Amino acid sequence: MTGPIDQDVPLLSPGRDQIQAWTQLMVATANALRHRRMELGQAAWSQQRAAARTAQQYANDLDPQVRAMAAADEAAFREASANGAEGFEHRTSDEPQFGWTVHTTAGPMPENSASGTRGAWGLWAHGSYAEKSLSVFVVAPDREFALRLRDEVTRGEQRTLKSLGELGTYGFMRAEHARTEVRENTPQLRERLAHSLHAAWPHDPELVAEALRPGGDNDDYSSIDRLAEQLRVLEDRGYSMADVLGRLDIGALRASYEQYGGGVAKHASQLVWQMAGRLHVVDADPVDPLVAREVDRALAQGVQDAGIESDPVYSSRNFGMLRAQLTDLRTEGHDLTALLTDLPVEKINEAHDPAAYLRAVVEKRARSSWSSEAPREPGRAAAEAETGIHRTGPDLGPAERMMRRYLSPQTAEAVLGCRAWPGLAKQVLAWKEQGAPIAEELAVMPEDRIRNADTPAGYLKTLLRRGVDFRESEARKAAEEAGQERDATHAARVRELTEVDEPGRSAPVAEGVRDGVPASPFEVRELDPTNVVERTALEMSRGAGTAEDDAYIEQILASPDPGEIWSKFNRAAEARGRAADAEDQAVAHARTPDDPATRPREDLIGQDEASVDRRRADRDRAIAHAEESGAPTAAALRAEVAHRPPTTEPGAAARPETRPAPNPPQPAPSRQVTRAPRPHR
Q1: In what ranges is there compositional bias, type Pro residues (predicted)?
Q2: Residue 173 near residue 68 (C-beta atoms within 8 A)
Q3: Per residue in 232-254, pLDDT tens?
C-alpha cells in the first residue's frame, strides 16, 4: 500500500480511564505491601537489598555528622584557639535565655589533632547559668554545618546545648560500633591510626606528627596506609592498634628514622611487621604456624600410612575445606592422628572427590571423639609472653576458618573480602559460643546468590540469622509441646531473637537491635525537624529502631515542608490516642453484666454505650488516617459526617417495635459545591 494516509490508524491501547484506574490499583497495592512490610519489621522485601541498606548505614555511621571530640582533639583545639589560629570565630549569645549565656568558638581542626586529616571543623560551646556550667566539644564535617550548630545554640533556645552534647556522644558511640561491623575506607582508617598514635605516644606529639606526615611533593600516603593495614591485620586477631603501637621501642624507632631518613611510618611499619612475625600472624594468616605444621604433618602421615593416592587428594577442589576442618578440630583439642588412622583406602581412591570423602569420614569420627586438654594454639601463649602484648578484642581467625571450611573457595573469598565481613565474623563467633547450628546453616546456603550480592557478607549474615532463628524457634516449640525443660538463658535468647513466633506473642526484633546498635537517646517522634540540632538527631537515629521508625524519619526528612509533616504526625498520634481510649471504654462497657430483674431493654444499656464508644473510636481513627494521608481538612470532615454518633441517649433506648425509623443520612459535602447543601424535604 502506497500513498498518503488520510485517516488516523486506530491503536490497540487502553484508554485514559483504564490507565488511571490501573495506576491507582498499583499505588494502592504498593501502599498495602509497604504497610505489611512495616508490620513485619522488614527494611525491604528483598533480603539482599535489606542487607545492603544495613551495611550502607554502618558505613554512614563511621563518619557521623556530629561526634564528640576525643581528648587529643580537644587539647589541640583549645591550644589553636588560644594561639589565635587562622579561621577561628567567636560568638556569644545576644541575651541570656532561660538564664543561660553561651560562648562559642568555631574553627578548623588543627593539623596536629587526631581528627584534623579531612578538613573537619570543631565547635566549642560553653554555657553558664549562675553556678552551673556546661562545656561541649563536637566535630562537624565542614564550616557551614559547624556555624549552623553555633547559631542554634546562641540564637535559639539554649536548652539545645545539652542536646548538642548528647548528639555528639551518640555520634561517637555509633561510630565506634560501626567500626566492628564494616571496614573503614582508606581516609577513615588513617584517621583512626591518628587516634591510636595519639593514645600510644601521648608524650611525644612531634613523633606523632612526623608519623602522620605524607612523603614526597605529591602527598604520598603509601607508608602510612601500609602501617594502618598491618595494624588492622593484628586487630583482626585481637590486638588493638594502640596496644601494638605502645609496645614499639620508641628509641629504636627514632634512631632508625634519624639515621636512614624516610618517614616515621615506614620505620614503624617494619617494627610492627617484626612483632607480627613473633605473634605468628604475618600476612593475616588466621592459623597459628605451629597448628598449621601439625595439621600438614598429620594429614600427610595418615594418607601415607593408609596407602591413599596423595595427588588426587591435594589437587581436589575441596582440599581447602578439608584443611580448614582439620585446623578447627586441632584448635578445639582433637587428636588428628587418631582421626586419620585406618582410613577407608578403596572408597577414598575411587571417590570422585577424594578430599570431600575424606572430609566426611573425619567429620563423622570427630562427633564420637573427645577433645583433649592440649592447648588450642600452642605457639600463641609463648609469643604473647615474649612480646608483652595480649589480646583485648575478638579474634576473627576462627570465623574465617569456618567460612573456608563450609563454603567454596570462590564464595569464601567474596565473603571475606566484603566490607561487612567484621559484623558477620562477630555474629558467627557469638552464635558458635552459644551452640547455634551454624554448620548446618552454612551447608545449605545459596552460594551463587551470595557471591553475586552487593554485600556478600551482609547478605550471608541475614540468611544465617533467619535460619538460626527458625531452627531455634522450632526447637523451642517442640520442647514446649513435649514438656521438656530448656535452659533458661537459651530460652530467653530464643524468645528475644525469633521472628517466626506465634502472632501477637512477641514483636519482630529490629535488625539494628540484634546487631547491638546503640539505642537512640532521643524520642524520635518528638524531635522538631526545623531545629538543626534535632534534625541531625533524626538523621543519626536511622537504623537504631524499627523499620517503621526509619520510614517515619525518611518521610520527615524528604518533605519540602518538614515542619508541616511533623505537625501532621503529631495530630495523627493524638487522634490515635483518643481512639485507643475510646476503644478501651467500649470494651469496658460491653462487659456490663445483664440483670434479669430489670426491665426488658435495660440489659442493653452497656451495649449502647459500647456502640457509642466504638463509633467515637472509629471516627478518631479515621481522623488520624486523614491527617497522615495529606488531606486533613476534607478527609476529617468526611470522617465526621460518616461516623456521627447517634443522637439518642443510651438510657432512652426504645423497644424494637416502637423505635422510629431512622432518618436518611445526610449527603457528604462535595468538593465542587461552594454553598451549603440543600436540606431534605
Answers
A1: 659-668
A2: no
A3: 989 988 899 999 999 998 888 88
